[in-house]
Give the backbone structure.
Amino acid sequence: MNDKYLFKSQRLGFRVWQDTDIAKMIKISSDPNVMEFFPAIASAKQTTEFVGRMKIMFDEKGFCYFPVDELSSGNFIGFIGLCYQSYKAEFTPCVDIGWRLSPSYWNKGYATEGAQACLEYAFNKIGLKNIKAIASKINVKSIKVMEKIGMKKQLEFNHLAVAHDKRLKSCVCYEIANESY
């Protein structure tokens, strides 16, 4: 296969991480607007380690938060994908779906389009049974994406990783099962 993409949606290409993505992802993850619903912006070291974890996850599981390119321009726009989660919560371990895009690609439907493509990949290519999505209750934009891709709210919980942060600790968990996709 000479195509660099593992799979595509109408406007997006999903691929494996390359070292050249790290600097671009550092720029995205250090933007306070992008990281509004996280306790802090990510450092260069944290982002570099994140990309390393995603490479290992893809090698081991066949999925990760995939680097995404806009097909028309070839530009890297951020990540959309799947991640194995094992932090302490009543619904873990699980596979979740998530996204983090450069602000210049917001409000174009890319998160929704990309998340739908990732569900298709998860259910039809690698045979996962269900996918979760987690967000702080105040992250209304991500919750709307979850709902647009057919996910249903399962529960509200206090996320232990951000328990010290009154603004972020109250979270929701959404879910979609393979048979209902």
Observations:
- The mean pLDDT is 95.
- Residues 44-61 form the longest helix (18 residues).
- Helices lie at 21-29, 44-61, 110-125, 140-148.
